[in-house]
User: Which sequence fits this backbone?
């Protein structure tokens, strides 16, 4: 089957090249101050610099958008955990029916694409609760929902893999209240899942563009889209960094997943 | 068992979660549908207008793009998945590829558009390199912002998504089935036709549906590539509903959004049904 | 003699690991031979070589008069049943059963008739519409057996078909397999690590260890006349007593001075181990003539048989006696004597 093997290797090589080209191009564009037209084999290694990142960081717009994105990520992650862990733990313990409903409901965000969700949200809340639209942090509930299918599955896996009933019964029999039980007994035992859910939420929010775009909130991806015109190299450089961060976060979650399976 | 089991029926404790979903997911969706049916003076319901009038082209374009990127994505993604499984014995191949796929499948949006502009745009690196070997993309009229350009960009996350779906399905293809088929006299093509392919079909079809809906809903990449003026449905919706511009077509925008939800719902339900059926087989 | 199976000095390595070492055994037409041994002994490898999923480094596998090594796995005409996941999950019982016939392009009428016949054979008529996941483990294996028989193979290969089943179901299915195999007269190779199974249904048992054959014989021969200490210990229960060899054919229990006769083979001096079946140990009263004395440590009531564990003094080791005569009336703590029947005992230095 030797020729068979070569065939599959070539498939992988071709695909890897396809995956690499855009990243390489983006890196080159961001960090090399040589326009493509003037590029030739002789000056391939010239004028590489990380200055574009510095230039971007100097822009106050960038700083405020980065801060907003980070704040939104953290808020989304926190709200997700606060919302999901107690509810799902309770469902696991008491009602398989509700657990099933939660499972179904966690797929619903796939059914309502972000664009539809945000225009409905804007229309619905404009009249009744405009605060959610004025304040950028009003987006957090929508972001929680966007990340829900992924975060739900993660927490579900975590809760299924521990002996939840025993932990809770033991804690309650020692006199702990429900809240204390959830946060000091259950949560530490699924900390891998909680960490993964957090990272997933952060990744989703850092890359989220649709909602911010329609609500005109200056998050990082939005900043990048507009900075493309003014400081393309800087924008591309930051885009690259953003990708690297997201990739690392997902890499870490894969690592957590692999470790817990052992 | 102390305490807990006595208070079996306390549905109220689940209220926060479901209320949250009701307010921030269901209500906006209902609003979209309600607005989509408001006529407010126009001769036809916006829902009908959206798919028959002059904006019909957007839906056709979006669906064509989605099907194209899904079809190619399924094909190439399957090849990659098979390659991963066939080369499983070589250390690191599987974890590298599955790891990378989970990253790439989530990639999208602005950085991805940037990357492809940098590579295949008019001033792109790859464009330039290809010219060195006499492949003139620009001369051929290839533009990253055109149909096939966008398909190419979308493939960047469609292929890994299909790979992630198919690798577990291939893993589930037990060796014993292949050996049983052989012992019963089946040749390799017969095995594939009668056993392997039917067993993989749910994953393949399901993957296709998922990829279609994934592409259909994509907004950021389309937006960035076209600088906000694309024929694709999500960008069109924005055009109608952005800010306070009085286009008089806001209801049309909601109608398009409503159609998006309906189409996506169909695809997702189909996907779930396929997945559930095949999981039942294999327990 | 066209439907017999023979392994002729088959050797197989995987890279640097040896899996089979000059393995030879024959299965006559109509015979059921078990390959019995611990995991890693090579029994599954042997089966896979016969089926065509592995190619041996040297040696031959013959069915009837001709070698099968030249044919690919799908042309060897062998029926195969696996430990689990035998059945195609996407096909119902009927479609599974007729799979081999479809591959051969048999007509629909032929297929239908054969399926009905097979379902009756394994006593599952009426279940032809079910999908595998709707069947119990035992039912699945019976369908798998029927499916293998559908194309009238020359040889039947069963790879631990009962290992994944519950204990009670195991006995049922095992008896079914034997009944059907006897009826069809097909040479059958049955791989297992469970010696109860092997002893219960085989015409001959091939005990394997470390990639080689230790002994081949009828279940009775292998049990009553084990050729090596390994066979004695692996097949059935055996007492493993520390003794000192006093002379040729005479040993004494460790710590004791009175010698007793044993078969003359084996070490002729020094420390050794005596392997003695529990049914060759008899418990007698204190006043009777006994080889050794001790105290009853435990009584195991096994329904048809009763086993008594006696802690021997001054030897300080426990010997088990199994008795089916219902004459045993022992209490824990009672002082008793034991008598050995050493005719079939094995003396060895192997630990």
Assistant:
């Amino acid at each position: 089957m030797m020729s068979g093997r070569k065939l599959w290797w070539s498939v992988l090589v071709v695909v890897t090249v396809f995956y690499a080209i855009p990243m390489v191009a983006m890196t080159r564009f961001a960090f090399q101050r040589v326009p493509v037209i003037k590029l030739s084999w002789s000056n391939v290694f010239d004028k590489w610099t990380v200055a574009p990142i510095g230039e971007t960081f100097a822009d106050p717009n960038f700083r405020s958008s980065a801060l907003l994105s980070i704040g939104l990520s953290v808020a989304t992650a926190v709200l997700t955990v606060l919302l999901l862990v107690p509810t799902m733990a309770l469902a696991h313990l008491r009602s398989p029916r509700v657990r099933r409903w939660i499972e179904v409901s966690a797929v619903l965000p796939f059914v309502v694409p972000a664009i539809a969700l945000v225009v409905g949200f804007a229309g619905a809340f404009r009249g009744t609760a405009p605060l959610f639209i004025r304040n950028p942090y009003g987006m957090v509930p929508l972001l929680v929902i966007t990340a829900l299918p992924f975060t739900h599955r993660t927490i579900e896996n975590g809760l299924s893999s521990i002996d939840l009933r025993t932990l809770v019964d033991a804690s309650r029999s020692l006199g702990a209240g429900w809240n204390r039980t959830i946060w000091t007994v259950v949560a530490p035992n699924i900390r891998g899942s909680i960490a993964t859910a957090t990272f997933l939420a952060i990744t989703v929010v850092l890359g989220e563009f649709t909602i911010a775009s329609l609500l005109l909130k200056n998050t990082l991806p939005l900043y990048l889209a507009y900075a493309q015109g003014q400081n393309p190299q800087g924008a591309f450089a930051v885009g690259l960094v953003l990708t690297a961060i997201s990739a690392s976060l997902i890499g870490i979650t894969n690592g957590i997943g692999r470790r817990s399976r052992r | 068992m102390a305490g807990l089991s006595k208070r079996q029926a306390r549905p109220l404790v689940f209220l926060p979660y479901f209320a949250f979903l009701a307010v921030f997911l269901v209500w906006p969706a209902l609003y979209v549908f309600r607005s989509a049916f408001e006529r407010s003076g126009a001769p036809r319901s916006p829902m009908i207008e959206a798919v028959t009038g002059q904006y019909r082209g957007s839906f056709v374009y979006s669906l064509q793009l989605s099907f194209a990127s899904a079809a190619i994505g399924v094909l190439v993604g399957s090849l990659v998945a098979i390659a991963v499984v066939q080369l499983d014995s070589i250390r690191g191949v599987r974890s590298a590829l599955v790891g990378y796929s989970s990253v790439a499948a989530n990639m999208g949006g602005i950085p991805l558009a940037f990357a492809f502009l940098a590579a295949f745009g008019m001033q792109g690196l790859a464009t330039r390199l290809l010219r060195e070997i006499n492949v003139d993309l620009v001369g051929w009229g290839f533009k990253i912002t055109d149909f096939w350009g966008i398909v190419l960009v979308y493939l960047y996350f469609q292929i890994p998504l299909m790979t992630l779906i198919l690798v577990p399905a291939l893993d589930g293809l037990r060796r014993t089935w292949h050996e049983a088929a052989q012992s019963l006299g089946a040749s390799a093509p017969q095995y594939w036709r009668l056993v392997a392919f039917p067993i993989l079909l749910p994953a393949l079809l399901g993957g296709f549906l998922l990829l279609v809906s994934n592409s259909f809903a994509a907004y950021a990449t389309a937006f960035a590539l076209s600088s906000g003026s694309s024929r694709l449905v999500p960008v069109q919706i924005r055009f109608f509903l952005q800010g306070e511009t009085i286009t008089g077509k806001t209801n049309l925008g909601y109608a398009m959004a409503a159609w998006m939800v309906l189409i996506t719902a169909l695809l997702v339900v189909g996907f779930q049904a396929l997945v559930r059926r095949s999981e039942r087989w294999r327990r | 003699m066209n439907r017999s199976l023979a392994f002729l000095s088959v050797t197989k390595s995987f890279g640097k690991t040896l899996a089979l070492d000059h393995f030879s055994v024959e299965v006559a037409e109509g015979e059921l031979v078990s390959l019995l041994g611990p995991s890693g002994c090579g029994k599954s490898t042997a089966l896979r070589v016969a089926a065509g999923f592995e190619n041996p480094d040297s040696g031959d596998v013959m069915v009837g008069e001709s070698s099968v090594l030249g044919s690919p796995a799908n042309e060897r005409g062998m029926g195969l049943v696996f430990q689990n996941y035998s059945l195609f999950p996407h096909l119902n019982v009927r479609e599974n059963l007729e799979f081999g016939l479809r591959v051969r392009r048999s007509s629909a009428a032929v297929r239908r008739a054969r399926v009905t016949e097979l379902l009756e054979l394994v006593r599952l008529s009426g279940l032809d519409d079910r999908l595998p996941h709707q069947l119990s483990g035992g039912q699945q294996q019976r369908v798998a057996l029927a499916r293998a028989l559908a194309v009238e193979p020359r040889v039947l290969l069963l790879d631990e078909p009962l290992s994944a089943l519950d204990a009670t179901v195991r006995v049922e299915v095992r008896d079914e397999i034997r009944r059907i195999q006897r009826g069809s007269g097909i040479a059958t190779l049955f791989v297992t690590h469970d010696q109860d199974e092997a002893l219960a249904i085989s015409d001959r048992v091939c005990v394997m260890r470390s990639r080689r054959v230790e002994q081949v014989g009828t279940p009775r021969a292998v049990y009553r006349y084990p050729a090596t200490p390994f066979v004695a210990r692996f097949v059935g229960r055996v007492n493993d007593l520390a003794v000192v060899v006093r002379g040729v054919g005479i040993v004494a229990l460790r710590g004791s001075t009175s010698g007793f006769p044993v078969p003359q083979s084996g070490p002729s001096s020094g420390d050794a181990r005596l392997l003695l079946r529990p049914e060759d140990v008899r418990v007698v009263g204190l006043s009777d003539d006994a080889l050794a004395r001790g105290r009853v440590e435990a009584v195991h009531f096994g329904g048809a048989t009763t086993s008594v564990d006696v802690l021997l003094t001054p030897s300080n080791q426990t010997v088990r006696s199994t008795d089916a005569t219902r004459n045993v009336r022992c209490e824990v703590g009672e002082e008793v004597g034991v008598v050995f029947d050493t005719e079939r005992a094995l003396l060895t230095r192997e630990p």
User: Anything to note?
Assistant: Chain B has one domain: 47-282.
